[in-house]
Write a structure and sequence with these properties.
The structure is a single chain. The protein has five helices and 27 strands. It is mainly beta and 544 residues long. The strands form five sheets. Strands 2-3-4-6-7-8-9-14-15-17-18-21-22-23-24-27 form a 16-stranded antiparallel beta barrel. It has a three-stranded antiparallel β-sheet with strand order 12-13-16, with no helix packed on it. A two-stranded antiparallel sheet has the order 10-11. A hairpin with a 6-residue loop joins strand 19 and strand 20.
Amino acid sequence: MRLLKTSLLCSAAAFAGTGAAHAADLPVKKAVPIEYVRVCGAYGAGFFYIPGTDTCLRISGRARFEGGYEPTYSRQANGRNFGDTAGYRALGRLNMDARTQTAYGTLRAFVRMDMAGRTGGSYGGGTSGTAQRFGQAYAALGIDTFGRAQQYVNLDKAFIQFAGLTAGRASSFFDFYAHDFEFNGYSLGSDVYSTNLLAYTATMGNGLSATISLEDPTYRRTPIFSPLSNTVTPSNGSVTNFGLTNVPTPVFYRTATGALATNTVNVIQANRMPDFVGVLRLDQAWGSAQLSAAVHELNVQDSTVINPSPAGAVVTPHANSVYGWAVQGGLKINAPFIAPGDALYLQGAYANGAQSYTGYCSYTGCESQTSATLQGQKFDQYFNDAVINPITGQLQTSTSFTATASYLHYWSPEWRSAFVGSYGEQDFSAAIRYGQGLVFQNFAGITGTNAIGVPGTRLFQLSQALRDTYQFSAGGSLIWSPVKDLDIGVEAFYTQFGVKSGRVIDNDKDPTAYTRLIANPNAVVRTATKDGVEQFRFRVQRDF
């Protein structure tokens, strides 16, 4: 028995030795090394190396809830009183910042996407007609939701920076304060936070830099004035897409017999030349200073007579392009001697034919000819860069200026407030209104609030169209930050606008005044000189 056990053990040992020898002859497959994400400390907190590259990436974002309330003082039960006094918005933001060190310096690409769901009227801070006009928001079409609900998606930023070059979608280099301390952007001043541009910045040392920027003019336009209705119809636009394709304005011409006649021209603007922006900026420990200048082309799409004129007629010549311009100066003073984080902004701007650069605008937008800032508004302001002279067929520009002051104060590391005030004016020359008065006198079909009236009549004196106006706003906020990157705050502001001289028809108290005054120059109508409203907002925001 002992002999049998010994034989079996020897046989097993021999087989084991043989197996081990064969296993040693087989190739060994090495495990794939694991590449862990490494922290990139070259560009600040939050960056990491993209595995397999030398590019550093930071992913960040924002979540926000916001609600707004704006009272209505309308005397009407319907019509101009839409009934929406509150609005709500939830916003999500995603940022991606990629940077690579090269022999020419840092190569950077930055992308930001904003997505939001909005409800309620725009007066209370809900839906945005401006975003819808730019194709950034999509309107709901239900019975109770049309005009009161929309989804918002916007490629806010997408730019590349390399060796002083900035190319892509970014904030306009012209801007300085740009509503830095505000929720709603109610103060007057330029703030084009998302436009297409190609720019070069030269750094000259000691915080001094100079920038030349070619920028998309689309986001700087206000319409050329038209006294005719701008409601979409099958004859002037696409009803399906709610878009105007023809905005007619009347002009005069002479017939073959020398008689005065009228026709219309299309004043929709076309893209041709970019806006040219130049900036000189100084950044120091005490704060910043900036001088900005811009040139903006007004290029009417088709100012030839639309309908063929009779043989031998002397037609109105094509409108030549006009270059509007703007200048701005801004100063930011850091005030740590009052409290850490305190800062004061001072800014002023003037423009001729480039109203967007001064930011003389309704806080609900100024991409339309008129913009109703509040429900039951007594009269409208006209945000037009230029008007076609009906006699010469050429463009005549408006002028505007704004001034803004904004102060941010920290009561403690967790509590802060902003105090903001601004004032501005927009002017149309007497010759502009006189020319449109001649159009009203000789062109049938001009009715409603765009009717200027015959020069010298009461309608001409009281009409709202192309009046010189002023606007001021003042407001403040209180924000609590109980932990880092969390803000809970409230904001309230008041805005007022009015005519600089004379009186204007009150559309709210007297909605049929224009019809009656056109029919009877001696009709008694209600008038006003100014209008205003306050708004309140609440916000909860987390950045990460």
